[in-house]
Amino acid sequence: MKTTFSFRATLPFLGLLALTTQPLCALDNGLARTPPMGWNSWNKFGCNVSDDLIRSTADAMVSSGLKDAGYEYVVIDDCWQVSRDDHGNIVPDPQRFPSGIKALADYVHSKGLKFGIYSDAGTGTCQNRPGGRGYEFQDARQYADWGVDYLKYDWCNHSTQNSEASYSIMRDALKKSGRPIVFSLCEWGSTKPWLWAKDVGNLWRATGDITDKWSTARKDDGLGVVQILDQVDGLESYAGPGHWNDPDMLEVGNGGLSDTEARAHFSLWCILAAPLMAGNDIRSMSAATKAILTNKELIAVDQDPLGIQGRRVRRDGDLEVWSKQLSDGGRAVALLNRGESPSKISVSWTEIGYPESLSSSVRDLWSGKNVGVKKGSYSATVPSHGAVVLRIMPASGSTPTS
Ligand code: GLA
């Protein structure tokens, strides 16, 4: 008997097959609609992490006012894990985390905070602890059972793995776990994650590791604050609610930056709509460090719901103007002096997208003072390695251009 093949009759089945075998492709976890804020152990403590450090940091997050200022995630970076058991389950260091990770996460949650952890898309982490490669679904289930709310996923020991494919497996595993978990990609910008990671993670590191310095002379010395700025400038179109460029965690309060430099570092991270992960010992910070990390008006710039990453609109040698469009029609403007002596820097209305004739109120966000209604431009003297941040708002009766 002759069998006839009808392509048309087969179509619905092919469609069904396509639906059932379709990968879970978009991230769409609804998280990080504004840049995530929190604390991460790495910059200050490296591998010296413990149950006590995390509990006391969670306590300090509340007592210092950081929680009220918006900091939310307490994240343990590398070195919490030591091995895998006979069933492949990841094993936390029993000496450093004697009560286990779930009890620790419960404690962090009891403070009204969220809990984060770290792993790696390769076979081992950057400190050669077990990585997630091949264990993604098992680990994601475990993290969800422990109550993890945030996963930072590194890129060491990845051999010939493809970054997008590797990170997508963990995205799908987290989704399958059923728990909302912010997914933070950490492949240092090496395969241009801004081009592909919007559908994979909520944030992606855009650069190598930050060092606790204003500037570094050689690549081998790591990236200072200004080297990072130069690397993220130009990536602004890739950021937005739910998907952010990450210029790395803050070094504010770690000793390598003067207070003026730390203010400039924090200012520019806010202009960049960067994730704000404090990286210092928040249990013993100076009043100046606390004042920087909790400046509510700067944080409001970072957390502006429009989610636009600011950009450098002018560079005259060491003097720079950065601008970020805000949801109320205003602009946050940073006047940045990378030079060695104080200098006057001005911003003109036209370079921030306003007509020259527009009357706008100008507020200085570090002094907390309104400096008046101005037309056309505004100038300020900016200290060496410092930044002045302004909130410029068309005065009532004037309409801004975009
Ligand atoms: C990499 C990351 C850092 C930190 C360390 C931990 O270098 O970029 O942020 O997580 O690994 O080993």
How would you characterize the overall build of this protein?
It is a single chain. The protein has an 8-stranded parallel sheet. By secondary structure, it is of the alpha/beta class. Helix 3 runs parallel beside helix 5 (100-110). The longest helix is centred in the first third of the chain and has 15 residues, at 7-21. The chain has 2 domains: 13-302, Aldolase class I (TIM Barrel, Alpha-Beta Barrel); 311-394, Golgi alpha-mannosidase II (Immunoglobulin-like, Sandwich). Mean pLDDT is 94; it is low at 1-5 and 14-22. It is built from 11 helices and 18 strands. It is 27% helix and 23% strand.
Q: Work out the number of β strands.
A: 18
CATH topology of the largest domain: TIM Barrel
Mean pLDDT: 94
- Give the overall silhouette: globular
In N-to-C order, the SSE pattern is: HEHHHEEEHEHEHEEHEHEHHEEEEEEEE
Give the termini separation.
71 Å
CATH architecture descriptor name of the largest domain: Alpha-Beta Barrel
Question: What's the CATH class label of the largest domain?
Answer: Alpha Beta
Overall helicity: 25-40%
What about the largest sheet?
8 strands, parallel
For the biggest β-sheet, the strand order reads 9-8-7-6-5-2-1-10
What's the layout of helices and strands?
Layout: H1 7-21, E1 37-40, H2 42-45, H3 51-63, H4 66-69, E2 73-75, E3 81-84, E4 90-92, H5 100-110, E5 114-120, H6 136-146, E6 150-154, H7 163-177, E7 182-185, E8 203-205, H8 225-232, E9 244-246, H9 259-271, E10 276-278, H10 287-293, H11 296-302, E11 311-316, E12 319-325, E13 331-337, E14 343-348, E15 359-364, E16 369-375, E17 377-382, E18 386-394
Helix pairs in contact: 3-5, 6-7, 9-10, 9-11
The chain binds alpha-D-galactopyranose.
Alpha-D-galactopyranose (GLA) is lined by residues 42, 77-78, 125-127, 154, 186, 188, 209.
